[in-house]
């Protein structure tokens, strides 16, 4: 996700950051994942980020939380570099603020789903919101299904 805001009070970009993280929280909650929200300290921020929030999901095999998504308020760092400006209501030309977020990092999210929804027999329960896309509720044997669906290369 990417957004551009005005820079009248500085709160516009923080508000958009909150909106993006709200979308991320809803996505991971709907999938039934156990996750936590990390406000990243200044020492963990890259050059562009003024404020960064990571979403980390529980990975049972590692007994650790792993990042599945993040969102950053970059204020005017990116807009200064590419020249994105706007005319403020006072007539002043200002640099916009930018906000970036990964809705979800697909490979990490797939690992998290397989880790958290795998049964003892190796099958994987598909989270309810994804069942209509997968057209099934359970992957009986994920590795066997993959092997049978691919043809050997000559």
From TrEMBL:
<dbReference type="InterPro" id="IPR002314">
    <property type="entry name" value="aa-tRNA-synt_IIb"/>
</dbReference>
<feature type="domain" description="Aminoacyl-transfer RNA synthetases class-II family profile">
    <location>
        <begin position="1"/>
        <end position="127"/>
    </location>
</feature>
<dbReference type="GO" id="GO:0005524">
    <property type="term" value="F:ATP binding"/>
</dbReference>
<dbReference type="Pfam" id="PF00587">
    <property type="entry name" value="tRNA-synt_2b"/>
</dbReference>
<keyword id="KW-0030">Aminoacyl-tRNA synthetase</keyword>
<protein>
    <recommendedName>
        <fullName>serine--tRNA ligase</fullName>
        <ecNumber>6.1.1.11</ecNumber>
    </recommendedName>
</protein>
<dbReference type="GO" id="GO:0004828">
    <property type="term" value="F:serine-tRNA ligase activity"/>
</dbReference>
<dbReference type="InterPro" id="IPR002317">
    <property type="entry name" value="Ser-tRNA-ligase_type_1"/>
</dbReference>
<keyword id="KW-0436">Ligase</keyword>
<comment type="similarity">
    <text>Belongs to the class-II aminoacyl-tRNA synthetase family. Type-1 seryl-tRNA synthetase subfamily.</text>
</comment>
<dbReference type="InterPro" id="IPR045864">
    <property type="entry name" value="aa-tRNA-synth_II/BPL/LPL"/>
</dbReference>
<keyword id="KW-0067">ATP-binding</keyword>
<dbReference type="GO" id="GO:0006434">
    <property type="term" value="P:seryl-tRNA aminoacylation"/>
</dbReference>
<keyword id="KW-0547">Nucleotide-binding</keyword>
<dbReference type="InterPro" id="IPR006195">
    <property type="entry name" value="aa-tRNA-synth_II"/>
</dbReference>
């Amino acid at each position: 996700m990417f957004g551009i805001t005005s820079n009248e009070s500085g709160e516009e970009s923080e508000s958009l950051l909150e909106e993006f993280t709200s979308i991320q929280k809803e996505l991971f909650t709907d999938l039934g994942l156990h996750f936590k929200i990390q406000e990243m300290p200044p020492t963990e921020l890259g050059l562009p980020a003024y404020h960064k929030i990571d979403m980390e999901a529980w990975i049972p095999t590692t007994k650790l939380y792993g990042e599945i998504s993040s969102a950053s308020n970059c204020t005017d760092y990116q807009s200064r570099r590419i020249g994105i400006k706007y005319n403020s209501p006072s007539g002043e030309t200002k640099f916009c603020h930018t906000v970036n977020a990964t809705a979800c990092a697909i490979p990490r999210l797939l690992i998290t789903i397989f880790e958290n929804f795998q049964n003892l027999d190796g099958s994987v329960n598909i989270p309810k919101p994804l069942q209509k896309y997968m057209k099934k509720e359970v992957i009986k044997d994920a590795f066997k299904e993959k092997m049978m669906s691919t043809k050997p290369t000559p």
